Amino acid sequence: MLGRIAFFVSVVYVVLNTMLLRWAAEQLPFTFFDDEEHFNATLGNLLKPRYVGSPGHSEVRDFIEKELQSLDFTVQRFDFKEGANFSNLAGYWNKEAEHILMLTCHYDSRKPKEWDKDILLSATEGAVSCAILLNLAKTLGLFLAEKLSKKGGMGLALIFFDGHYPVTSDNEDEDELIGSSRFIEDDIIPLKKIALALTFSYIGAPNQTYYNYFEVSEDLHDLVTDIELDLRKSGQLTDCHVLFHKIKEFDNDLLDDHVLFHELGVPVMHVAPHEFPKVLYTAADNQENLHYPTIRNMIKIMRIFVYDFLEHWDSYISGNNNFVPYSDSDDN
Ligand SMILES: *[C@@H]1O[C@H](CO)[C@@H](O)[C@H](O)[C@H]1NC(C)=O
Ligand SMILES: *[C@@H]1O[C@H](CO)[C@@H](O)[C@H](O)[C@H]1NC(C)=O
Ligand SMILES: *[C@@H]1O[C@H](CO)[C@@H](O)[C@H](O)[C@H]1NC(C)=O
């Protein structure tokens, strides 16, 4: 009799344990691993003069395309002529999903003067932001393959815009956003599908702080600052000043591709410092002057944010907070 009871108890114990373990495994958030070697190698491939028409421009374009393919993204390249040959690049997971989280950067560099055309590596100008996008793609890889690809509703798009700068260098201070204008004109991703256009710009200089530039994504910006705080508390960040602050600067946003989407009513968020890097458009905008703690922490923070958005997008876009999804005013 006692033997039977003991047997019964141990069976119950094993069954309960198995159930508990399963439950724990399902609840456990994904564990992500850094891959700074990948970041460094990627940045190495981007850090070259890459103004429109230069050999570096097509090398970088081809590199990004190959890299996205090797990370199992569905890749599209859109070539177009507008006084020069431009190419936008797009990499997708769940391309056909009803909603798309779009991460963007621009990969071309500003056309230099004749004398400095071989020395401007334009690191914070865009290379670091694009390397961060590719590193997010790499280190989120397992999650994208195992989880995101099994859900239909939300997709991820990484967009590498060309043509941030005009073809000539006469108008030094003019950003033309040729690539993103064309992307919108050609309806590459219908605006209604874009749950959020998140643009990365001018990242990598020392002392940068990141503010909230758009009311529409205020909750998401606050979430990013909370993620940074949590990671810092649990000792997961490199020792460094605080990057994200819940400070609103709605009229002090640096111009980049997201602005065009914002003007058309797409929810946008801009991960950008509140002032330009001091080294911008100089030969000192190189790897030596990058601030690695900022870059390391930025990747860790934004990886959790992207993961969280892809996992919980339905609560973000169902109106449980301020976040207002895209609505075409013509529909009303
Ligand atoms: C990446 O490059 C930075 C700057 O050169 C260096 O400090 C860091 O150790 C490198 N990381 C790895 C993993 O090689
Ligand atoms: C654009 O590319 C074509 C080849 O595809 C080349 O013949 C042409 O010269 C290029 N145009 C410019 C402005 O570089
Ligand atoms: C960054 O801030 C510290 C402290 O405020 C200052 O000493 C340092 O010169 C700043 N560095 C740059 C590159 O601005």
Automatic annotation (TrEMBL):
<dbReference type="Pfam" id="PF04389">
    <property type="entry name" value="Peptidase_M28"/>
</dbReference>
<protein>
    <recommendedName>
        <fullName>glutaminyl-peptide cyclotransferase</fullName>
        <ecNumber>2.3.2.5</ecNumber>
    </recommendedName>
</protein>
<dbReference type="GO" id="GO:0016603">
    <property type="term" value="F:glutaminyl-peptide cyclotransferase activity"/>
</dbReference>
<dbReference type="InterPro" id="IPR040234">
    <property type="entry name" value="QC/QCL"/>
</dbReference>
<comment type="similarity">
    <text>Belongs to the glutaminyl-peptide cyclotransferase family.</text>
</comment>
<keyword id="KW-0808">Transferase</keyword>
<dbReference type="InterPro" id="IPR007484">
    <property type="entry name" value="Peptidase_M28"/>
</dbReference>
<dbReference type="GO" id="GO:0008270">
    <property type="term" value="F:zinc ion binding"/>
</dbReference>
<feature type="domain" description="Peptidase M28">
    <location>
        <begin position="88"/>
        <end position="303"/>
    </location>
</feature>
<keyword id="KW-0012">Acyltransferase</keyword>
